[in-house]
Amino acid sequence: GRILVELELGLEGDWEILVPKEKEVVLVVVSSCLFLLTSLTLFGFIALTAPRANASALLKPTSGVTQALSAKSLTIESQLRGAFAKTTLTTVYSNPNEQQIEADFLYSAPKGSVVTGFAYWYGKEKVVARVVEKGRAAKIYQYITSRMRDPALIEMVGKNSFRARIFPIEAGNDLKIEIQLAQTLEQTAKGPQWTYPLREETQNKALEKVKIRVHSASPATSNLGQFEDGDLRIDERNYQAQDDLRTQVAQKAAPIRASLLAARDGGEDGFFALSLTPNSTITHPIVNIAGVPTYEVLTPEPDQLAAGEPIVVLGRYRGSGKALVSLGGQSLEVEFPNAVEKGNVASLLWAANRIETLSEDEKNEMQVMKMSKRFGVPSKWTSWLAIPAEERENFKRQMWASDRADAAQAYAQALARNDSVAVQEQKLIFDSLTQKLKKLGHEYSENEELQPLSSYLNDELRRVRKAMFEANHNGGVDETQLAEWKTWTSNLQKAGATDKGKGVDLPVYVIEDELRIASRGYMREVELGQANSAKAQGFQARLKELAQTRTAKEYEWDEKTFLSEAADMRGNALAMDIATNRASQKRDLVREKQNLARLHRLETASSLKASDTLQQALQTVWGEKIENASQPWAREIIAGRSRSATARKYEKQVRDLQQRSGLKQLETIDSAWKSLAGSNGERAAKAIQQQGIDGQSAKRLDAQIRAIARLSGQSNEELRSLAWNSVGNSIAQDLAKEVRAERWQSPTTKRLQAQFEVLRNKHNIDSVYEVDDAWSELESETATRLAHEISSKRENGPRAKQLSARLNELAKYTEGQNDWSVREAWGERAREATTQHLEVALRDGEDSPRAVNLAEKRDLLFQKAHLDAKEFKDSINEDMLRSLDSQISDGVVFKRENSADAMKATLKRTRLLALYPALKNYEPIGPLSETLAWEGRAHESAYLLLQANKKGEKGKANHLRADLDLSAQKAGKSRDAVLKWEKAKLNSGQPLIKATDYRLHPGDPLISVLAPADCRQVLALMPDGTILPLRFDALKNAWEARFDVPAGAEEGDYRVQIVIVAPDGTRKRLVMNFAVDMLAPTGAASLRAANGQWNLRLETDEQTDRV
To answer: Which string of b and e fits 704-742 if b means at least 16 CB within 10 Å?
Structure first.
């Protein structure tokens, strides 16, 4: 094939790229290594191409040969809504590598798609990626991987493409990854079409398991299956698709086919995605939307829009209702709903495109980072980072400990310099981090407790004195520097620092350092052949003097120990230089002779063994050469050609190198013989399955292993274990296939299971997990089917009985660990029955025949679901009470308290409390509180009344006055006090707070400054450079404003400078100390749904006000 490639890689050496004809090629640069990805096997490693809609994965090991990840199973779940879709892809990759590796997972999303989520599995924990500032994410990833822990770093490497680095992946462990997409569908003559390239995904290898669930809100058809009740279900084993999966969403022909997806994401305004497809060509297309206010609209501006080609408009909207959309002289009506849908596809598509547009200007960095974190979409300045829960805690602890040590060191250095401002700052940081670490209740390392501040002062004093000692010893002391060191020493001692041991005249560290320095100085003179020089004699005298000190005797330090240490250090350096010189193409004999002489001089003056030191260096340098030369010979052995002419040629090359170096290192060859033993076991596995593990094929395998052992000189037992491990793996894999194909009761499966049980007890079979997983998957699948029957209330039907019997049989192999879906189905039935019983009990009484019957049915379902009946009933009762409180409170704030629905809810609430007195301890708060609703309504009416009086609107004022009297009375508040409060707000220019908002409290931090009302201005200078004006609150007699901590703010101090401009123009500056604290509050939380609304209940610690 002919390929044009321009690369500027800065890589040393010669690189040869072999490109097979008619093959797609991807070049990937990873850590100064160039990998060529094709669909063929090249140079012992396999890599995957990246087709248009699925990902490729490449493993980057720390050493050795790379083998690529290959897809093992695939799960697709997609929700189609007109021309848009939300898709989740879950792929399990098998990992054939025999060492711990780091995986580079490369993914390119299909055209029109945005990657909106990423997760991977760490053991049983699903680790979801979160958006983090890019530099900080890389720093955290590097720190955690250096400790051999398990994070994942996900970065964008192009438009709609990203790279995920995951480390470590243990040898042989599968890798499970989830990707979420927000998609705009391609258009056909019949309407939107959703496609997934199943044929490309499975063209090289069948997938063990494929599970597909596609739901369409509109009528749809598919080429690979039938839709039933809006759902397409595909479940296949050992699946190799003959065609891609295509799903056609039906849409009526029209001059313009429109598809609108719109919803609020939790705020006041909503997001929309509008796809318009004309049936004729339009030049310079312009889209207009009238009837509903829109803003921040992103509209493509093509010169021409062809017939059948869609134009997709993304934007924000206010309110709701019908809108008129026009394009190219044609118009149609669409409706913008008032619905709330968190994380809806329209919001994600808009956010991704908005971020892309803003990222073109560096000035928008802060805004882009904030949007990226808000919508969970990575950007130019952010990355996804996925860290297991346990490691997040470890990282936090280690970082705090590291920052604490840094603060302590900075504190000690500031004390030495007599910098009082820095001393105070670093002391505050040190104390804050100390408290945080103590709250965690853990030591920050395995064997070290939190060191007191005094120990860091002692360390700093030691560092300064050591610098003074070395400078004096080496000569050429800078007098200015020496005077400064003396001042620092004095300041540290005044602060209580000490470097003296108990009863010792000289500090311990001084004696140790001087012994080491004097020893190295003496050995340097010996090496140069100047052992009798005045300088050498001076070093010797100092060594003897130090060895006689009380400290040296107490620690059993003698001059010989330090001299040997110095000789070893220099001897190793000289030996490595000699070994490297001998192995080079241009050997420097003069240099080698000089270094040999130096090495032998060191031997005469110490316990150094020159020959041993040199041999060790040769081992290090030549060992690598022998290892590299051994690889071609090893490949011949692995291929079963150990006695061929080629193998003998390679063997001779290795033996020659061994003779030149005098080394016998053959680790690669040892591995090759082991690999050959394993290959023999793999080839014999099928015959052993048929004949039995005591048959002729098994005996023949043992004989082959004995022959390999004689030829290689290796242990027969070790080689036999490797061979039979391969046999066991083959049996395990075939057994797993039979189980997954649901032939688990066949004679073949029973035979394989019996053989497998014998071998797993005798040998360490790597694929044990595969068999266990197969049984677990079958049990889980059976449980899911039974759960569907239970949910459909067909638990007594023949299919349910058959599935139940099968589940009992499968429990013999799995211990019944995967039937949670059955319990969940019974739990849903129990919830339904409990709710029905409560409704009937409230209407007819708890002793009515129907209520009694439903109670018996409910209790039976509790038993089947293994639920705590009391706790479950209490939960349903509380949910009902919250729902009623919500209806009553909403009726008050919207002035519908006398409506039929509100009256019915009030009556129902009274009956519920009478029936279950324990509920009287429940206190509604926030939006659920009727009292707070009346209070909010009173304040709203008071504010509007004051406005009406100002405008002279008497009729409106009379109505509001009456409502104020009623609301204040119901809330238990003074009418005059409410009026006074709202009058002060109105006079100070503060806006109206509606009753609906009054029930909620703002969460942003408050800046409050007690300054006179007649100040010209009060400003807050924020750490990120923004200026925040404060407004005077007449009620509190203070200047106030709330602020939001920007995205990317680092944890720690967050200082806000306050500037007060007095009436006469003079300025006063203050500093307000806030802190960004990412330590989550502790406590319990529960989330329940009631009547279409979610209720979150928190029981938190005393630190919740930090949030």
So the answer is: bbeebbeebebebeebbbbbbbbbbbbbbebbbbbbbee
Phi/psi of residue 294, nearest 5 degrees:
-125, 155
949 vs 979: CA distance, rounded Å: 12
Q: What is the pLDDT of residue 68?
A: 60
Higher pLDDT, 65 or 881: 881
Q: State phi, psi for 697 to the nearest 5 degrees.
A: -65, -35
Q: Is 147 helix (H, G, I), strand (E, B) or coil?
A: coil
SS3 content of the chain, % helix, strand, coil (to 5): 50, 20, 30
977, two tokens: 């006090």
Q: What's the gap between Cα 1017 and its chain centre?
A: 45
Output DSSP code: residue 797. Answer: S
For the stretch 206-230, pLDDT in tens is 899 999 999 998 999 999 999 998 8
Q: What is the identity of the amino acid at 903?
A: M
User: What pTM did the predictor assign?
Assistant: 0.42
**pLDDT value at position 336?**
94
* Residue 279 dihedral angles phi and psi, to the nearest 5°: -95, 5
The Cα 579–Cα 915 span in angstroms is 91
Q: Which helix (H) or strand (E) holds 433?
A: helix 420-440
Q: What is the pLDDT of residue 39?
A: 25
Distance separating alpha carbons of residues 846 and 855, to the nearest angstrom: 9
Q: Is 640 in a helix, a strand, or coil? A: coil
Query: What is the pLDDT confidence band of residue 968, given thresholds at 50, 70 and 90?
Result: very high
- Report whether pLDDT(8) > 50: no
pLDDT higher than threshold 80 for residue 485:
yes
584 three-state secondary structure = coil
Q: Average pLDDT of 797-808?
A: 89
| pLDDT (0 to 100) of residue 245 | 93
Contact in structure between 559 and 549 (CB atoms under 8 Å)? no
HSE (side-chain half, CA atoms, 13 Å) at 446: 0
Residue 470: which H helix or E strand, with range?
A: helix 453-474
All residues at 6 or more sequence positions from 311 whose CB lies less than 8 Å from its CB, including other chains: 275, 276, 277, 285, 287, 299, 300, 302, 305, 327
Question: Rounded to an integer, what distance in angstroms lies between the CA atom of residue 703 and that of residue 705?
Answer: 5
Determine contact, residues 900/966, Cβ cutoff 8 Å: no
Query: pLDDT digit string (tens) for 551-577?
Result: 888 778 888 888 888 888 888 899 889
Selection from 45, 36, 172, 57 nearest residue 108 by Cα: 57
Q: Taking residues 705-717, what's their average pLDDT? A: 81
Which residues make Cβ contacts (< 8 Å) with residue 342, sequence separation at least 6? 265, 266
**Structure token digits, residue 991:** 């806006």
- Predicted pLDDT of residue 263: 92
Among the listed residues 572, 560, 580, 570, the one whose alpha carbon sits nearest the alpha carbon of residue 625:
580
Whether a cis peptide bond, with omega within 30° of 0, leads into 168 is yes
The token duo for 268 is 């006041």
Cα 107 to Cα 71: distance, rounded to the nearest angstrom: 13
Strand 207-216 versus strand 70-81 pairing type: parallel
Q: Are 1079 and 1053 in contact (CB under 8 A)?
A: no
878-894 mean pLDDT: 89
Structure tokens at 8: 């500027």
Check if the beta carbon of residue 107 is closer than 8 Å to that of residue 161: yes
**What is the full DSSP assignment across 943-1001?**
HHHHHHHHHT-HHHHHHHHHHHHHHHHHHT--HHHHHHHHHHHHHTTPPP--HHHHTS-
